[in-house]
Design a protein that fits this description.
The structure is a single chain. The chain is an all-alpha fold and about 350 residues long. It is built from 18 helices and no strands. The protein is globular and about 75 Å long. The N and C termini lie far apart (about 80 Å).
């Protein structure tokens, strides 16, 4: 018998060979992996083609989640163990295994953020009619009236801060931000295992509470809040809505465009964002029609979106714009009224409607 065979032979006392527990554990892990792979494949096959993300968007969503989780980890680690703690590494693999990315609210927020970035990057650069004339936001920042210049400068500052590495942890609404903080803290504690005691639990919980308080204090300094304040300061007259919206779009200031649209339509920013990201733009068309924008203004806005997003169907959009002439303004206003209802109520109505309830 060779040395290798002797080492792998069963223990003569009747027990398993010394390497057997490890081999059995690896076999069990392989079975679990196989089952997980089958389940993931079934979920992937079940996704309709119309809902399937392209690779660029999928990679963007993953990268955005990695950035947010990484920024939260760094902040919590500084608070509880500045010198590091044995066993604490990236928490995202553990969070993936626990099902965090399957949270529809979180996934939806990540997807919307990525698609807004893609849309902003795809918007064409419009040469101004007067090359010496500054962009809309820069003109407002230099306006002699502080009521306009101060919120405009605040938005410029918020946009600059949003590009910093630390900004990753502020990219979610407060409710989701808080939820993710607790997820990451729990994953960090799980990684530490038996090497840590209750002192680490207490330190992590204190760090999360401190982060939540900081997030609440900083909420008003974020881009969305700054854009909303500037939109309120501009407060264009109804006949000026088309011009101001077009200027914001031409300047590629998507947050300001959303804030202006939300204010004009009296809807929240999340609803305005959904309108802008709707590939067919039917709901956006109806809202703009309800605001009584001219056909030319609506067409220019929507064609700019088509230029920024190659996935949009230009011919279908042109047909939909032509159909607006046959839609009564009051009917469009009725649709806008539905958008003003609380989102929780609308979501539940849709859920009940999907079950056939009336």
């Amino acid at each position: 018998m060779s040395l290798d065979m002797a080492q792998s032979a069963p223990d003569p006392r009747g027990g398993p060979a010394p390497g057997a527990p490890d081999l059995l554990a690896r076999a069990a892990a392989a079975e679990m992996h196989d089952r997980a792979l089958h389940a993931a494949t079934a979920r992937d096959i079940a996704v309709p083609e119309a809902l399937r993300l392209d690779e660029r968007t999928r990679a963007g969503v993953r990268a955005r989640l990695e950035q947010i989780v990484g920024a939260i980890e760094a902040s919590l680690r500084r608070a509880v163990a500045p010198e590091g703690f044995p066993g604490m590494g990236p928490t995202l693999p553990l969070l993936h295994a626990a099902g965090l990315p399957a949270d529809p609210a979180l996934a939806g927020e990540l997807l919307a953020g990525v698609r807004l970035d893609q849309l902003a990057a795809g918007l064409p650069h419009h040469a101004p009619e007067d090359p010496a004339r500054p962009s809309l936001l820069n003109r407002l920042a230099e306006h002699p009236a502080p009521a306009l210049s101060e919120p405009a400068r605040a938005l410029l500052l918020a946009e600059s801060r949003a590009r910093s590495p630390e900004a990753g942890r502020w990219r979610l609404p407060l409710i989701l931000h808080t939820r993710l903080l607790w997820w990451v803290a729990a994953a960090m504690r799980e990684q530490a295992g038996s090497m840590a005691g209750v002192a680490l639990d207490a330190a992590l919980c204190a760090a999360v509470r401190a982060e939540c308080a900081l997030a609440e204090r900083c909420a008003e300094d974020q881009v969305e809040a700054a854009a909303s304040r500037l939109a309120a300061a501009i407060d264009p007259a109804p006949q000026e809505h088309a011009r101001v919206l077009l200027e914001a779009m031409r300047d590629r200031r998507v947050p300001l465009f959303l804030a202006l649209l939300a204010r004009a339509a009296d809807i929240d920013m999340a609803a305005a964002r959904a309108l802008l990201l709707d590939p067919g733009a039917e709901r956006l068309l109806l809202v703009l029609h309800a605001l009584e924008l001219s056909r030319e203004g609506i067409a220019e806005l929507c064609f700019a979106l088509c230029n920024a997003d190659p996935a949009r169907d230009l011919a279908a959009l042109a047909d939909a714009i032509d159909m607006l002439a046959s839609v009564e303004v009051q009917a469009a206003r009725d649709q806008l009224t539905l958008l003003r209802l609380p989102p929780e109520y609308r979501a539940l109505r849709m859920a009940l409607h999907g079950t056939g309830a009336r």
